[in-house]
Amino acid sequence: MSSRLVQAAKQWRSWFWPSLTVFSFYFLFRYAFGFQGQDFLSHQFIQLQAGQVPEVRYDITVNGALAICLALLFTASLAFALRQWARYYLNRKLILSYLIFAFIPLACTVLIFALGIRALFGITSANTVENMMIMLSADLVKYSTSVQDQTLELLSVGDANFNVELELSNIIDETRRSELSRHSYSDLLVDVYFLSDFNASNLFMCMYCETLRDKSLSNLTGFKTLPDDEYQAIFPHWFKGDDHLAIVERQDRLFIQHYSVRPFDETSRTVAVATVPIDTQFLEHIRDTMDINVSLDHNGGYWSYRTDSPGSSWFLRWLFKPLSSTWELRALDWSSGIYRPTATMTFEISPSSLLASLGRIKERNFLGNDQKQIQFYLILSITLFLILAELMAFVFGIYLISYITRSLNAIADGHERMAGGDLDYQLPYLGKDQIGAMGRSFNAMSTNINSLLKEVRIKEKYEEELRIARDIQMSLLPDMRDTPAGEHISAICIPAKQVGGDYYDVFEVAAGRVGIFIADVSGKGTSAAFYMAELKGVLIALRHLWDDPRQLMLAINEILYPALSANVFISAAYLLLDGQRGIATLARAGHCPALHISQGKCHDVLPPGMAIGLAKNSVFGKIIKPVVFTLKPDDKIILYTDGLDEMTNQGELYGLDRLRDVLISFSELGSEDIRDAVLADVRKFVSTGEQNDDLTLVVASLPKAVAAVDELPKTG
């Protein structure tokens, strides 16, 4: 259950952090460059005194705080996603190096370029708008001055029979056609007032008022006196009655307004007010002139004027959205006489408007002379070249870091899979460089390890078979605890390898006699063990000869001589102990001499004989001659193979002398204690050496007299 939870947690992390990174980046980008725009900072203008530039205080809005939270969330999720993708420390160092040397310089270069284009575009657009307003203001001054001159000329006639408004309308229309023919001012409004005593509202009269026609004052004829509130709206308390030209905010609308004041006589004057509203029609005129989308928004949200050029697609408008430039527009509050930021004018850039902006730089000589223009284009070209170079480095860096991290991850995954036991795993082709060489070395190492492990498995299988063979071989040797004579006989067989060619056996012969057989097959290993097993079978088959050592040896040689290889022979000895008579008979076929321990002395028992398998019985029988000798109850007789006395350590043989000394020293002990003492002395002699031959040792004493039995003899 716990492993499933761990696996589920790993799968959860594998998709959660990348998904969170994508979503946080999307919403952050949407907030930063949304179609409608977002206000991250709120600004409040603090007016010090009339006519002074206001101070600005900025505060972070809710959108700004949310954008900061989204930026932090994007940074954290990106860090976790990269940490999960770059699991190894080297990958993280590569990514960090890439961010420092490729991505951050590219981002900074693009940002500087974007800010430069934005500033250039904004300054050019603002300069163009300013020039248009200056030109329009000059036209208004000229127009209103011409209207004033003709109005004074009309009033100087003093004829009461003509319609003042009609005459003024003709004058205004004629002047509009003559003075404003270069531009289209269909929304131009003109008011003409007569003041008999300035700042006295009861003597303020409107002779021609286009701005008041929607207030039931249409079709005015002659002089009409306006109420005090209308007077204050046109001539506020701060107005001094001089010529005045400004962008004004009046009744929550913006106007370019020019006041032209002319004296009529000593106590009266005329005032011509020409106004052009800054509205959608005005912005469309700017758009047609500049080839740019312009929007004007009231800071208080009372109105919003926008233009929309169908020349570019939504995708390009969205792409160039970060390059849009926003400028504060200050206007004169007509009721208070204070200049204050009233609206924001936004210039939305597009490919066509950008080219038009660059063309206007050349036309208006914005940078002063040709040299500055050349320098500008040179800087622009270098910036574009730098962006292109950084972009190429960015793309190449992505490819390089992706290749390195992917290759390293593949190698690391290969090691993990090999550590998990998948030794047949091969890495894919990783290239011709050093990483590819590492991949090829890994595959070669995997192949070699796999081959070695196969060899190890084969060796382990072979050793297991040898272990089984050893167990079988050891099972062929008698267990002295299960034989009646076991308390008088102690034996041990230690092969030099897993299996060996040494063999011993104990037989219970009829009439209370015990036979001890010991043999040593030439060579070591499986072949010697095979012949040893074959010898075991032959002895069992010849049980009827167990009470006759010489005939037993002849029969064994007769059977095994044709079965043994030419270079294989068997040295053997057969000892027949008679407990009733107190005698022992020893037949030796080329084996080591038996050692007889009696009364603290050691005697060699060495009857003639040759090894089994060297010659036929015609020769073998002539040489082998058993020997009979007397055994006392406390005597010991030792049978052994040459692996005991020929044990070596640094070229020195253990030898029969050491063996005799140990036997004499422990002659008073029982058979098992003598056997253990001999083995301890041999191990002490060998110490750091290695056993180079099979070792077999049998220590026996005369068994007690037993009653004769009629049953068939048994083998141990």
Total domain modules? 4
Taking the alpha carbons of the first and last residues, their distance comes to 57 Å
Proportion of residues in extended strands: 15-25%
Average pLDDT for all residues: 75
Enumerate how many helices there are, as a single number.
Answer: 16
How many DSSP E strands? 25
Q: Report on the biggest sheet.
A: 10 strands, mixed
Shape: rod-shaped
Overall helicity: 40-55%
- The order of strands across the largest sheet is 5-4-3-8-7-6-11-12-9-10
Instruction: Determine Rg (CA atoms, Å).
Output: 61 Å
Category by helix and strand content: alpha+beta
Low-confidence stretches: 214-222, 361-369, 706-716
How do the helices and strands line up, and which of them pair or pack?
Layout: H1 2-32, E1 41-46, E2 55-60, H2 62-85, H3 89-157, H4 164-179, E3 189-195, E4 204-209, E5 224-225, H5 228-234, E6 244-250, E7 253-263, E8 269-277, H6 280-290, E9 293-298, E10 304-306, H7 314-319, E11 325-333, E12 338-348, H8 351-364, H9 370-419, H10 434-476, E13 489-494, E14 502-509, E15 513-521, H11 526-541, H12 549-560, E16 570-578, E17 583-589, E18 594-598, E19 601-605, H13 617-623, E20 627-630, E21 636-640, H14 642-645, E22 648-649, E23 652-653, H15 655-665, H16 671-686, E24 695-701, E25 714-715
Parallel strand pairs: 6-11
Antiparallel strand pairs: 1-2, 3-4, 3-8, 4-5, 6-7, 7-8, 9-10, 9-12, 11-12, 13-24, 14-15, 14-25, 15-16, 16-17, 17-20, 18-19, 18-21, 21-24, 22-23
Helix pairs in contact: 1-2, 3-4, 3-9, 9-10, 10-11
